[in-house]
Design brief:
- The chain has nine helices and 13 strands.
- It is an alpha+beta fold and 285 residues long.
- The strands form four sheets. It has a five-stranded mixed sheet with strand order 5-6-7-9-10, with helices on both faces. A four-stranded mixed sheet has the order 4-3-13-12. A two-stranded antiparallel ribbon has the order 1-2.
- A hairpin with a 2-residue loop joins strand 1 and strand 2.
- Helix 6 crosses helix 7.
């Protein structure tokens, strides 16, 4: 765990506390332009607030340690002295973009927000995903673009209220994924991240703790082998004997496909079946 990572664990918690204390200001922001949803005014607001008012640790300045997944880390002075030098919005400068590309183990896309953080006397860069919703769940990023430990600001807003929570992208995923027309987009949920924070993140004296929990297997599978997850779900659908009223059209189409497939498969000889299975296995990439 390096100094930059430790700073982000504290700073994103700090940012959530600050934004919730001044959340009435977020009610004044326009989340829609004509008939299109837009988060540009929100990005510009966050840029101003972070650069001018919340660019360093304040609420958590006296924290001496942080526990992450059962491991305790002492907070060095370099982390306490770190501050956000500037906030970049798209389009990101090419030199910074190249730095971000080199360290991302996923398809690179322009970040919503990029922090330039002065730590140990040099600038380091961290990206933040920005999610807004009127209800709860929304389609997330394409599965190939997801960086599980990227930080997220998640805002739930209505005409009269706004709620803010922050955390890592992984903990916002709710394991639901619609049938993909191009690339799967696992849903992210304000409630999912909010509840995870309430259950797993707390301040105990001078220590901030992010607890390790063992019930994230499905989400990890979704990010590491989403095709296998979908295959298991589709298998469950075609063997389901319950009432099928009101379900997605794809489920019915899937049953029709299976019937036609079985008709063709049953007409094969045992040798042809074995050869076909081998062909399928060899075709999987």
């Amino acid at each position: 765990m390096n100094d930059l990572q430790l700073f982000m664990y504290l700073y994103m918690y700090e940012l959530e506390l600050w934004l919730n204390n001044y959340k009435y200001q977020l009610l004044k922001i326009s989340y829609q332009l004509d008939e299109a949803n837009t988060d540009r005014p929100l990005k510009e607001y966050l840029k101003r607030m972070i650069e001018d008012l919340i660019n360093k640790l304040m609420y958590l300045k006296d924290v001496k340690s942080v526990i992450i997944n059962n491991t305790m880390y002492d907070i060095p002075q370099s982390v306490k002295d770190a501050f956000v030098h500037s906030v970049m919005l798209p389009p990101i400068y090419d030199d910074v973009k190249n730095i971000l590309k080199k360290r991302k183990n996923a398809v690179f896309t322009e970040p919503d927000i990029c922090l330039a953080i002065n730590i140990n006397g040099k600038l380091e860069y961290e990206t933040i995903e920005l999610k807004t919703t009127k209800n709860d769940s929304i389609p997330g990023s394409s599965v190939q673009q997801i960086t599980p430990d990227e930080w997220v600001i998640f805002i739930k807003h209505t005409a009269n209220d706004v709620e803010i929570t922050t955390g890592q992208y992984f903990y916002a995923i709710n394991s639901k994924m619609q049938f993909p027309d191009r690339s799967p987009r696992p849903q992210v949920s304000f409630k999912e991240l909010y509840n995870w924070n309430n259950r797993c993140r707390n301040i105990n004296g001078n220590t901030v703790e992010y607890k390790a929990i063992g019930d994230e297997a499905e989400k990890k599978a979704l990010l590491t082998d989403w095709q296998d997850v979908l295959a298991k779900r589709w298998t469950k659908i075609v063997f389901d004997k319950s009432n099928h009223k009101g379900e997605p059209w794809f489920n019915n189409n899937l049953r029709k496909f299976i019937l036609q497939f079985l008709e063709k498969y049953d007409s094969m000889s045992d040798k042809e079946k074995d050869e076909y299975k081998t062909l399928l296995n060899n075709s999987i990439t």
